[in-house]
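Students often ask why we bother encoding 3D structure as a string. The short answer is that it lets us treat folding as translation between two languages. Here is a chain of 259 residues written in the first language.
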Amino acid sequence: MASLIRSHMARLWKSPVFLLALVIMFPYGMGLCNSAIGDFASGVASAGLWGQPLCGFSLLMGIVLAAVCSLFFGAEYADGTIRNKLIAGCGRAGIYLATLGAGLLAALTLYGVCLLAWTPRLGWMLQNFPAPEPGKLAMCLAGTLLLLAGQCSLCVMLCMLVQRRSVLAVVLLLLMAALFFASLQIQDAWETATGGGMQLMIDEAGQQQWVFHEPGQAGKLTAFLYDALPGCQAYRYMELEATPAMLCYSAGLAVVTTA
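And here it is in the second language, the structure alphabet:
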């Protein structure tokens, strides 16, 4: 299996799609860092400032993995690579796990480039940004890695099931886009249900007045999706708001899709 992973990685470094993804990660990482610095300059003094550059990769992760996996691993059937591996005596499980391992290494490489993009500003950030709680930061970083593993496992599973590369690319990109937009809707529903405070209302006479609303509770389905959907997890990791349930859902996705 190790030789199969090395073969994948050797070809991956020659792939224009992967090289383009690496190039995109650099300005994206810089943008996350600049966003955090801009928030700090505007008066935000939250420890969550560290969450944007450290965990922000997870926000774009699904789309990037969908493109890389579908256009690179999706060519395995079209090029006859899987057939040749089977003829050479490689087992199906070994082929699958090698593909998954190469996908995870590719995702970690992209994540590393995203982090390296803003390392020149790390010294300034350490001096000015408030220090985050080590426990929260560690859980959010672990959650980001598990989220990466879960989405990569989902992409690899579809790559091994769908034989047509054109169909695979469309399916993966639409799936990741649908998950992202569903996350936005669930996050809005959660904030609407649980958020309290003043709200501007218009009464029957057409007069505007401010009404105070007590914080409420979201429904069970909304709470579950708020913990499970990738986009919701990504936003919460960027704010250093992780829960054990979120990590379990990401790990469960990786286990189920691989099994």
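Translate back mentally: The radius of gyration is 21 Å. Keep this in mind for the problem set.
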